[in-house]
From TrEMBL:
Top-level taxon of origin: Bacteria
Protein name as it appears in the record: Branched-chain amino acid ABC transporter permease
Alphabetically ordered keywords of this record: Amino-acid transport, Cell membrane, Membrane, Transmembrane, Transmembrane helix, Transport
GO cellular component, one term: plasma membrane
Membrane topology (UniProt): Multi-pass membrane protein
Transmembrane segments: 6-26, 33-53, 59-78, 90-113, 133-156, 188-212, 224-248, 260-277
GO process terms (BP): amino acid transport
Organism of this sequence: Desulfosarcina widdelii
UniProt keyword annotation of Cytoplasm present: no
A Pfam family reported for this protein in Swiss-Prot or TrEMBL: BPD_transp_2
Family, similarity comment: Belongs to the binding-protein-dependent transport system permease family. LivHM subfamily.
Annotated GO MF terms: transmembrane transporter activity
Length: 286
């Protein structure tokens, strides 16, 4: 029973990591940019979801509105921060992204205060029994939300004209543009979807802990950066598998080596060991 509980908890956290990491993978796959400011969008989603939910009393309204607002902010970041420097070496965009993330953390401190905010009446906190294991409703919502969102993203990319344009732009932007595809619109859509996913993940993690704070995006999103490397840069399927593997390793590690390392340290130790053995990632494309 203990092993089953650890496995379920690992899959729950892995599902949340997947939502964050896939957004990063989308940006890297299209522009070859390590979008560190994704962490700031993750925290912004947590704040927006909490404030809207507290104001309206409805998470059903709070989460999609937070996702839409943060998606628009992501598009603005692309237009203002990344588009003018796309012809520069990749490290220029990386430095700009790191600087933007630091600036966003300071803005959160100034606007929302240095201390954490909590839900007035946190939703999805009721306890349900599943296979003899007690879980909160938010745990089940994370898994269901992850499967639904990533399934919809897969359908969009594989079964629609938008997805065809998306994949063509990833393969060769110049040829895609010669066939009438608006590369700019594809990139805007990419940032909107990736940023909206980050916002949803931010809302979910705020529900898990009933806390939103300026630095909340740091650890989960830096894990996501490592996950996309572990999964093979730009490989969405590899990113999903790596996210679930990391969640399970964390869960079992807290039992067996939790006295030596905390949960986050276990995750990073695992990632470092794997990347030392296979630096191109477990699922890198040829």
């Amino acid at each position: 029973m203990l092993y089953l509980e650890l496995l379920i908890q690992g899959l729950i956290y892995g599902s949340m990591y997947a939502i964050i990491a896939v957004g990063l993978t989308l940006v890297y796959g299209l522009l070859r940019i390590l979008h560190v400011a994704h962490a700031g969008l993750f925290a912004l989603g947590g704040y927006m979801g909490l404030l809207i939910t507290n104001s309206t009393g409805s998470l059903i309204l709070g989460m999609p509105l937070a996702a839409a607002l943060v998606g628009v902010v992501g598009m603005a970041i692309y237009r203002i921060c990344y588009q003018p420097i796309l012809d520069q070496p990749p490290y220029v965009a990386l430095i700009a992204s790191i600087g933007l993330f630091i600036a966003m953390e300071e803005m959160f401190r100034l606007i929302f205060g240095p201390f954490g905010l909590t839900y007035t009446d946190a939703p999805l906190q009721s306890v349900v029994q599943f296979a003899g294991i007690y879980l909160r409703t938010v745990d089940l919502a994370i898994v269901a939300g992850s499967v639904s969102l990533l399934g919809a993203l897969s359908w969009l990319s594989q079964k629609t004209r938008i997805g065809l344009a998306w994949r063509a732009t990833v393969d060769d932007p110049q040829i895609a543009e010669s066939f009438g595809i608006s590369v700019l619109n594809v990139r805007y859509l990419n940032f909107f979807i990736g940023s909206a996913l980050a916002a949803v993940a931010g809302v979910f993690i705020s529900l898990l802990s009933n806390l939103v704070e300026p630095t909340m995006g740091g650890v989960p999103s830096y894990k996501a950066l490592a996950i996309i490397v572990l999964g093979g840069l730009g490989n969405v399927a590899g990113t999903l598998i790596a996210s679930l593997v990391l969640g399970v390793v964390e869960a079992f590690g807290t039992i067996y080596i939790g006295d030596i390392l905390d949960r986050d340290a276990i995750a990073f130790a695992f990632l470092i060991i794997v990347l030392m053995i296979r630096p191109e990632g477990l699922f890198a494309r040829r």
